[in-house]
Specification:
mainly alpha, Amino acid/polyamine transporter I, 19 helices, transport, Amino_acid_permease_CS, transmembrane helix, AA-permease/SLC12A_dom
Amino acid sequence: MQSPIQPSQHSAAEGQTSSLKRAMTKRHLIMLSLGGAIGTGLFLGSGEVISQAGPLGAVIAYIIGGLIAYMVMLCLGELAVHLPVSGSFGAFASNYIGPGTGYMVSWMYWLGWSATLGTEFTAAALLMQEWFPSTSIWIWTLIFASGVLLSNLSSTRTFAESEFWLSMIKVATVLVFIVLGFGAIFGFIPFQGYESAPLFANLTEHGWLPNGIFPIFATMLIVNFAFNGTEMIGIAAGETENPEKNVPKAIHAAVWRLIIFFVGTIIVISSLLPYQDAGLNAGHGLSSSPFVSVFNLMGIPYAVDIIRFVIITALLSTANSGLYAASRMMWALAAQNQLPRVFAKVSKSGIPVLAVLVTMIGGLPGLLSEQFGADVIFKNLLGVAAFTMVIVWMSICWSQFNFRRQWLKQGHQVAELKFRTPWFPLVPILGFVCCTATGLSMAADPEMISGFIGCLLFMAGCYASYYWLYHHKN
């Protein structure tokens, strides 16, 4: 029996995928996923969630967010192992939902990453200017942009290694934060002049849910933004060694580690800081992370400098992986004849050079955001990235639901699949519903309503352009 994917698309995708180098290992996949997720959403967004939802509410929100991410990644695992092609979401949506939706999903994902490149570089440059006030933001912006561009243009293995070590800095910081935090909670480390911090006192001082239950749901967009990036495992499947073994292992390892990291971080912050003080202090910009506050109260020297450095690496890591993911999505569009074929050409080292360069140009408008404050940059970045992520995650759940049904209708057995999404159809249905609710919550935020409307208009434009091109060709 034939696979549900159309033969012509399968052969095209297969031929192009063979031109890309399968150079990533399981450790690269795990770090790519962790690196995409551990960033501003954790270092900055976690404090906002605590200040709004309260200690217990924040823990519940991150657990729910982690479970939503896990359900989506389980759906992605079945699809990516069955069809390990680069630019996977668009190909899956094209084959199992409809070509117009696949086209829209591909462009939404490209928009989400390319549009945030400039703001990532600018935010990192603003932080560097705090160290070197006399230097221009443009100098640092160009330095960072050049470094990320070189990382992506060299080879897949070089990119994977650079992202591995950038991500390692973030992961190590989170682990040290959690270990030292629990050391302070249980009295092994002095805290704020006390021999030990009051054991979990701040967790219960104002009640577990001081603002009620509703803020748990109101903050879900921020929480889901924190898990944004885990889906890069699907993007990288087409360039991964032995994907049927490494992709499922990477999915399980990455998502559960993220849940442990995020929940552990929330417990430490909620225990050591009054929940009202966990949010960002706008007057101190990006460096006013709850991580800084906790390290300062522990008496750790140079806490501001340490976290500033970590946030810079987080921003560059996000830009590095974002440029990779967006360029591979553009390559996939060209491989499916939805962009000029020149975008599908790859270098001798297997890099779609033109797709990388054009994606970098797509991020240039963000370089004009120098005049905005860090809080505005963060809010804009969160809104666009979170909404585009929600659309992609919804498409993954829907694609897996349709794929499994087609697979069984064709006479195949579930046991034939090398990776199976458990508890079908509950997992894809519940994942889709949760992602839909999260996306709609964006409309309830007055600061995000313009971004919400803009993203909807972009979606409509994608459908309109696809059907115009389809009918124009025919």
